[in-house]
Specification:
- By secondary structure, this protein is mostly helical.
- It is 54% helix and 8% strand.
- The chain has two domains: 39 residues; 74 residues, no CATH class.
- The protein has a two-stranded parallel sheet with strand order 1-2.
Length: 118
């Protein structure tokens, strides 16, 4: 008799655990936690492009710590495939994009607005 009641309790515990797991997957908190866990994986997109490094330093940098422009990651990737070392670049304003361009093109010229005009 004891063995049947133990079996019943074991099955009941298993069903309760499954029910709790199903409930946990539905809540917004656990959905958020699952999303964060997937972002923190070694193969996550944000980690591969350096977003976490930029967030940590509070500067636009790549995963390797190199300066990147204040462009979207998609725009930067688009430009990377089209830039040639023989190009001349003109920028209105200067900053991290100036550093980024200087490593990729022959010459980079900037026009900066004077602070008195701004």
């Amino acid at each position: 008799m004891k063995s049947r009641s133990r079996q019943f309790r074991g099955r009941l515990r298993g069903k309760i655990r499954k029910g709790i797991r199903r409930l946990c997957l539905v809540t917004p908190l656990t959905a958020t936690l699952h999303a964060l866990r997937s972002l923190l994986r070694k193969s996550s997109y944000l980690k591969s492009i350096g977003w976490f490094e930029s967030y940590r330093r509070r500067l636009p940098v790549s995963r390797a710590g190199e300066a990147i422009p204040w462009y979207t990651y998609g725009a930067t990737a688009f430009l990377e495939g089209r830039i040639r070392p023989s190009m001349l670049v003109f920028e209105y304003g200067s900053g991290h994009s100036t550093l980024w361009w200087s490593h990729r093109v022959r010459q980079n010229r900037q026009l900066r607005a004077r602070s008195a005009l701004v």
